[in-house]
Design a protein that fits this description.
Elements (H helix, E strand, L loop, with lengths): L1 H9 L2 H11 L3 H13 L4 E2 L2 H15 L12 H11 L5 H17 L2 E2 L3
Antiparallel strand pairs: 1-2
Length: 114
């Protein structure tokens, strides 16, 4: 479901025309900006579903795999996740997702807005 939603979003005229063509950036860069600005801004709260959504989007965008359970993110897993996303296509979105994931792990609540 998540993959379908992001793929449907990626095919919108806004991503293809405005960001990629008019700004002269690659489609992947345009999609990175759009996911961060249009999708991630709407995620926030203190429920387990919020945390799970953030983790699932991060895994989908980066391909991150862990041998540990991702129900709680400790400093060790955080550092692995941080190193993992830096060489991927969606760095801006992944960086923000990781900050939101860490905030949830630390405070039990997260929002896009810091």
């Amino acid at each position: 479901m998540l993959a379908r939603s992001i793929n449907d979003f990626a095919n919108t005229t806004e991503v293809k025309c405005f960001y990629a063509e008019k700004l002269g950036i690659s489609f992947e860069q345009a999609l990175d900006y759009c996911i961060k600005q249009k999708i991630i801004t709407r995620i926030g709260g203190s429920s387990k579903d919020t945390f799970d959504s953030l983790i699932n989007i991060f895994i989908y965008l980066t391909g991150f795999k862990s041998d540990k359970d991702l129900d709680y993110i400790d400093w060790e897993i955080y550092n692995k996740m941080e190193k993992h996303y830096k060489d991927k296509e969606y760095t801006k979105t992944s960086e923000k997702l990781l900050k939101m994931i860490w905030r949830y792990s630390r405070d039990g609540f997260t929002t896009f807005w810091e």
